[in-house]
């Protein structure tokens, strides 16, 4: 099976009514390669605006809570996203893990809940610089994957985003070889711990300072099935990154 190239744009906590309109207009008028799955994750407040105006892709939330409803002030649920027609959610982003202290177990609980409700999940994993320098990259990402594998058996609605923490928003991008190595290891892990089908079919996308200049070479790697893009998704070059699809 060929894996459809996937490009996600994570706007993080950026935007305004005017900026959202400019960004969506830019994407709607850009010349984009056919056959790429594009998913934009605006701040939750702007989801309806993006949903009603974006022609070139789908919309994701940047997070959910693990429960359906109730006394969880400030949170939104998977059910609410489904209710307003959102299909995707990003879970486990390094900022959720490191700024907000989300654990592997909480992220796994959220993933199980989101998938159960019928959302698709962009599941982020990745090591810190300290962990990479201590040769713990695979140990860390396998642990992050295992937490989800313990509670989820069907990976067909999961896109894995390998995002080394040291490369997110830093301008330090993993080399194509570094990205390919980890993506390959993740695919082997899927084969051994989920199924050969999951290894073959699951998209593994790279994130971490992807831009128009580095996307072509990273995107050419055998186990890189697309990108999750932060900073550059707020710029016109996001169209070039979509067009780097192999
Ligand atoms: C991200 O937020 O997922 C990300 C990869 O950010 P950036 O592209 O800015 O490094």
Automatic annotation (TrEMBL):
Pfam families, sorted: TIM
Cellular compartments per GO CC: cytosol
One GO term (biological process): glycolytic process
Keyword Iron-sulfur attached: no
Catalytic reaction list: D-glyceraldehyde 3-phosphate = dihydroxyacetone phosphate
Isomerase keyword on record: yes
Enzyme class: isomerase
UniProt GO molecular function: triose-phosphate isomerase activity
Keywords recorded for this protein, A-Z: Gluconeogenesis, Glycolysis, Isomerase
InterPro entries in alphabetical order: Aldolase_TIM (IPR013785), TIM_sf (IPR035990), TrioseP_Isoase_bac/euk (IPR022896), Triosephosphate_isomerase (IPR000652), Triosephosphate_isomerase_AS (IPR020861)
Enzyme Commission designation: 5.3.1.1
Functional pathway: Carbohydrate degradation; glycolysis; D-glyceraldehyde 3-phosphate from glycerone phosphate: step 1/1; Carbohydrate biosynthesis; gluconeogenesis
Family label: Belongs to the triosephosphate isomerase family.
Subunit text: Homodimer.
Record NCBIfam families: tim
Name of the protein in its database record: Triosephosphate isomerase
Species per Swiss-Prot/TrEMBL record: Dimargaris verticillata
Lineage: Eukaryota, Fungi, Fungi incertae sedis, Zoopagomycota, Kickxellomycotina
